[in-house]
Specification:
Elements: H1 8-15, H2 17-32, H3 46-69, H4 74-79, H5 87-96, H6 101-117, H7 127-131, H8 147-152, H9 162-185
Helix pairs in contact: 2-3, 5-6
């Protein structure tokens, strides 16, 4: 459709994961029954191996082309933010108050359901309304209704905190640099 603006190329890349997983399975099944010496069975690894290599090279070219032309419109991203995104933050808030995660998850779901019933967002629920679901809600609940705080709270490796993202980008840049050095030496 002409009005469509999403990146179809990334969907097609994701779709290729089945082919690559199938190739991996083919090789694993061939290797599964081998005794410890060389066997002619191994000639069956070439087709899936070369197909996977060719597929990955092509996918990387498509991904690079997509990323080179990618335009991120911050204002559109910010406009897409929704208070319903805070449901996980509610669960983690309750965990920090001493509630087991499975119970906190259930209460967070009840918070979302209450907001839907009241025809408001989770951030518009009053403390009194929240306390009907759990006595663990306190005045400080309002501190979690901030998108920046929500992102920054995930400090573990791979988390969304700005410092983690910077470290991950630096590690990726180093990996790319090392890979380029290795490939030019070959």
């Amino acid at each position: 459709m002409p009005q469509k603006k999403n990146a179809d190329s990334l969907e097609l890349i994701r779709g290729k994961s089945g082919r690559l997983t199938g190739n991996c399975m083919t090789i694993l099944v061939v290797l599964k029954g081998l005794p410890s010496t060389f066997n002619k069975d191994l000639q069956e690894d070439k087709e899936p191996l070369f197909d996977s290599y060719k597929t990955l090279v092509e996918l990387l070219q498509v991904a690079c082309g997509t990323l080179e032309t990618l335009k991120i419109h911050k204002e559109v991203c910010f406009a897409a933010l929704s208070p319903d995104m805070f449901a996980t933050d509610v669960a983690y808030y309750l965990v920090r108050k001493g509630i087991a995660f499975r119970d906190a998850h259930k209460i967070a779901g009840e918070v979302v359901a209450l907001a839907e019933k009241e025809k408001c967002t989770v951030t518009e629920l009053s403390l009194a309304q929240l306390k009907t679901l759990s006595d663990h809600f306190e005045e400080d609940i309002s501190s979690i209704w901030n998108y920046e705080t929500s992102v920054q709270q995930y400090q573990a490796f791979g988390g969304t905190a700005r410092e983690n993202i910077i470290i991950q980008v630096q590690q990726l840049e180093q990996w790319i640099s090392d890979s380029e050095t290795l490939t030019t030496q070959v």
